[in-house]
Amino acid sequence: MKKPTKKSLLGKKSKKRILTGIELLSSKGYKASFKSLAQIVSKRMNLNFYMDKVGSSFTSFDKDGNPIMNIDLWTYEDKAFDTSHYHIIAKALIYHESGHLLYSDFNIIGQLHQDFCDAKKEVEKAANDYHSAKEEDKADLIPLVREKVGDFVFKVNMPEVNNIYEDLSVDRCMCEKGREENGCLTFLRDIGHDKQKELFRQAIESGYVCLDMDNWDDNTLRAVLFEAQAFGHVGYRKHIDIQVLNALFEDDDIESIMFMEEQLYFSLPHDHHLAHQKAISLKEMDGEKMLLMSNIGFWNQMHNETMPNTKFLIQQDRSVFYDLIELSSLPSFTSDFSMKYDGIPPNRVIIPITDKEAHATFYCCYLKENESQLKAFLYTLNK
Asked: Are 112 and 83 in contact (CB under 8 A)?
């Protein structure tokens, strides 16, 4: 039998594992750079910054009141992006979490959590009282148990639903700061939409959110959504003098004044097959290719919901958008407000949209305690 020869290990090169994009960006050097960015954007030089794999990115405070920020890129590792895309995601998460430190009222967020804890104790007490009561007394306790259970269901879901509105409000404020913030956060929202829905579904199934929203009755759903939306706006209202909303805001601390109304129209080329009609519904136009401006607020959501089969060609540059309207045969939208200031689009037929969704009323909302500081503006508004 031939004796095996020993292979010399000298000169044998060891293979170094190549870092993934996430591992590279979470390394010491990049982490220090991201920390500086977070401190500058959030205006918190005492910020404790982490890039740990904990399941989510978040902002919080330690026991001494110092802010904490964690950026978790691993929640996006299933996307298999290259390093440059993960770099955009890291900056977007920093902008988003910094927005919470700049605009969110953590006292209100903490109060929502405390309300949930209090409601949990109340429902436990009501259940214990019911089970320990005599059989002949239990029927009288059922209404109270139902009331406490309903209150618990409402308050256990409120922080989660409120967080959706709070995130949107914070991102809107950060996007207005500049093109860099807008671009990064838009990219993050685009890739995170499906992930957010999946995480919410998993939360419901795991029992973290105790009630499946699909089974809520209309009154409960409207109540939760409206109150959550209110908290979402209130959460950063201390840093804003006046906010324009497309719904009447009812709050003891906030005054709302009607600002303006806006009606949408279709802007069609003369040879369009519906150009002869006096009015058109959104459904009639659904399925066509249309030009659409970006950054149009809630109108964007309305278009996507009411015209799901339409392919919108989104334009970032307003001057390019108007050139395309004039030179192309693609339909678009305009409004009475736009036509008042920009004029009627040339070479176009302007046709009213019949759906109620195409009409909006806007309100200026402000804290009543700040009314004296806003007298000049409010006088002009009322005039």
From this structure: no
